[in-house]
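hiii so um. not sure if this is the right channel but i have a protein structure encoded as tokens and i wanna go backwards to a sequence. like what aa goes where. can anyone help
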């Protein structure tokens, strides 16, 4: 049996940076930070001698192996924080001692969002029962790792050693005494030592990516009645029409790029990927209700569309600055009698990087993963011909071809369903269900079959994943899931 240290991040994230001036999140938590957290619990519990001996036993062990899931770094807005307190003895004009005159330094606080909240560290050596008990008491009194908002549940137990990689940094004999000494001297502790892996490892190839870019332009809902997720394809189409009208208002109606319009110069459909517009809804979290919180413009990868000055000028014209709010507002409206069936008017604001709700973070959709589940149903590219069990195989084959169409490998497994695997996402309408449960589609897609699905890939692929005939108006939007 081995010694296992289990950590569960209760809030679903880990707020820890790789250094004081580094904006890169640390995941998983390195061994020296873990040991320091146990020492802090030891000090808070009264510096008991038997627990100090348990820590000295732990610092003599070789570096643990860690098993942690994949993760993404949450985008973070800029905070302006005061530097260290000024000292008046440095000069008679040390005005920085007054709060109103203190300087403010821009900082970002790194946060890692793991796919799974539980991390396991394991050591090959098995301690005596008294040592195990002392370590477990320290672990149970450890309430956070990294920043104080990064709440955890910890425990030591006996278990099997994980076949995983060693941690990047670990401690050494005498580390406990060193931490105590630096604490008494009111000095920041030094990091642990890097762990040298005995065998060379080849670099993993980058995951295969779809034709869509992972840099999005996000608009957050402000005011007005936001249509439900069921009508998101019609709202996306209305946003696209507004962008095209912006080009015409700029006198560029005959020079709208194919990457924006989706039409070739001869008026036919574009043969390459073009701008997609997707809904960002509150789905996939506990108690999610499927509310649409905003929309995002998703350009093709390497198109440079979001940096194109003409495109940006069109958006500035469509979203003038609202003097009362102090920022730009994009107003989208449609009259009654159109595809939407009723009039709606919504106001959207460009979302600054790192601001807003978690559901508006593109990282939820763009991180590498092996498994993806649909948020909005996929519009099949062809009408179905088979019946019974053969119909399921026909759907699965269409979805495999849809993945190839956007540059991804064929999934190793496809599970179609009428319901989404993500909490809060609306299901495909069942036969005999009320009419209001029907997904509203543009006219050219109204007769097509809709299906939700879960896709498994043999190797991680990078999103965003948008599948099917409605992918450019936000249908077939997939999200990575554990």
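sure thing!! here u go:
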């Amino acid at each position: 049996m081995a010694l296992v240290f289990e950590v569960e991040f209760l809030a679903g994230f880990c707020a820890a940076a790789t250094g004081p001036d580094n904006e890169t999140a640390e995941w998983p938590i390195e061994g020296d930070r873990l040991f320091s957290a146990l020492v802090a619990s030891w000090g808070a519990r009264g510096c008991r001698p038997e627990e100090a001996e348990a820590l000295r036993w732990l610092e003599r062990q070789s570096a643990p192996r860690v098993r942690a899931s994949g993760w993404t770094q949450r985008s973070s807005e800029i905070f302006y924080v005061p530097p260290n307190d000024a000292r008046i003895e440095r000069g008679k004009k040390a005005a920085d001692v007054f709060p109103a005159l203190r300087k403010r330094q821009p900082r970002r606080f790194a946060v890692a969002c793991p796919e799974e909240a539980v991390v396991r560290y394991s050591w090959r050596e098995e301690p005596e029962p008294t040592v195990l008990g002392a370590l477990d008491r320290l672990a149970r009194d450890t309430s956070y790792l990294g920043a104080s908002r990064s709440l955890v549940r910890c425990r030591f137990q006996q278990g099997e050693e994980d076949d995983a990689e060693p941690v990047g940094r670990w401690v050494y004999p005498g580390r406990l005494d060193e931490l105590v000494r630096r604490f008494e001297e009111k000095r920041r502790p030094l990091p642990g030592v890097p762990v040298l892996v005995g065998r060379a490892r080849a670099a993993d190839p980058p995951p295969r990516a779809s034709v869509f870019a992972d840099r999005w332009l996000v608009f957050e809902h402000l005011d007005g009645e936001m249509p439900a997720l069921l009508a998101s394809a019609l709202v996306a189409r209305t946003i696209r029409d507004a962008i095209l009208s912006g080009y015409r208002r700029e006198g560029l109606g005959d020079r709208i790029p194919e990457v924006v319009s989706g039409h070739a110069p001869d008026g036919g459909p574009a043969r390459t990927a073009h701008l997609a517009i997707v809904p960002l809804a509150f789905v996939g979290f506990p108690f999610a209700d499927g509310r649409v919180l905003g929309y995002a413009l998703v350009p093709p990868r390497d198109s440079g569309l979001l940096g194109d000055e003409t495109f940006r000028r069109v958006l500035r014209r469509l979203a003038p600055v609202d003097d009362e709010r102090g920022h730009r507002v994009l107003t989208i409206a449609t009259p009654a009698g159109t595809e939407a069936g009723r009039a709606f008017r919504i106001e959207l604001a460009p979302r600054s990087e790192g601001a807003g709700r978690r559901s508006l973070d593109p990282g939820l959709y763009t991180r590498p993963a092996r498994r993806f589940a649909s948020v909005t149903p996929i519009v099949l590219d062809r009408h179905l011909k088979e019946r019974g069990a053969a119909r399921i195989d026909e759907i699965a084959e269409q979805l495999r071809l849809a993945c190839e169409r956007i540059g991804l490998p064929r999934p190793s497994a496809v599970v179609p369903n009428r319901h989404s695997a993500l909490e809060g996402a609306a299901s495909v309408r069942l036969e005999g269900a009320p009419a209001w449960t029907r997904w509203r589609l543009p006219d050219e897609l109204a007769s097509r079959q809709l299906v939700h699905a879960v896709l498994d890939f043999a190797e991680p692929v990078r999103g965003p994943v948008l599948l099917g005939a409605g992918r450019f108006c936000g249908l077939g939007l997939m999200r990575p899931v554990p």
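oh and The longest strand covers residues 450-462.
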